[in-house]
Predict the 3D structure of the following.
Amino acid sequence: MNLSPYLEDLERRVNAEEEERLAGEWLSFADGELREGFFAPSRPGSPASLDWPEVNINDCIDDIDLMIYQQLRGVSDILAGGGGELLSLRPNYGTGIIPSMYGAEVFIMPRETNTLPGARTLPGAMDDIRRILDRRETDFSKALAGRVFDFAGRWLEVSRPCEAVRRYVYMYNPDLQGPLPLAELLWGSELYLDIFDEPETVRAALGFFTDVMIAFLKKFHALCPPYDAGHSVEWGLLHRGAVIVRNDAAMNISGDMYREFVRPEDQRLISAFGGGVHFCGKGDHYIEAVSEIPGLSTINMSQPEYNDMEIIYRNTVDKGIVIIGLPSAAVQEALGAGRNLRGRVHSGASLAAWTDKK
């Protein structure tokens, strides 16, 4: 695919003054300088000068330039719509990046869903996990992991002639998930029984996948550094630190189990990089344990309707932890109830889990 016309279109539309202003507002928010209300940034709309056709994500998996185009189309949409996210892209290969390194079959979703691929659980469940732990191999050239680094290298090449695009379109982390979701994906649902019967194997698996994530992120950041030494961009949302740990699987365990098995590994990731935690679904049963992680700066959550949001706010904004990407309906509900958000909530659903904007 010829990316030049699309890069040139973005180069004309990116306004350095506006991008600097917006980045400054995000930095003030991320660093806790706002004291009241909520944060809802925007930029003036900048329409495209050519047509950006939609592409199916299935066609992008084996075509790096088409994957870059798919990500740049999202940048174009943000510019055209006046969205308040920073401009960003990522190697968009779904949740199976690390699992595919260890033999998990990549599952391409039906074409009509236009949805990122996943990966199938290993057939041997815990026995396969034990073999992984025995070998302790880490080869980032394999399967989808290799495509991540191919994407990053290609982006650095094609963006080089475009000064504004290179400066203001930020590369962010691929979806590496978190230690618990990785173990669950490879192990299967038996994990939730084996956590009682084989707790030491579970701990070993969580520890190993934490090691893999740390090594992966160090390699990726060496090629594509975060926003700056103290901040990074995820889904266009700037936050303190350089990782957002995905913890969707933690809705399936108790808060006590989270403290015992998962939090030590999340802590290692936050200690290594700084950053926050993302979860879909219900998280109010373990948010207090998450909030006690030293150095945690940020929470990103979906589906606030499944949570007691007062518990969430007590363990985030009241403790100086910001929430990014909260749907505007939840923000308005909190304000209508007289809830002080302390200037620590970003209003506007991110691309993490939602399709509505504000």
Remarks:
- Residues 4-347 form a domain with the TIM Barrel fold (CATH 3.20.20.210).
- Residues 22 and 41 are 7 Å apart (CA to CA).
- The two ends are 33 Å apart (CA to CA).
- The chain has one domain: 4-347.
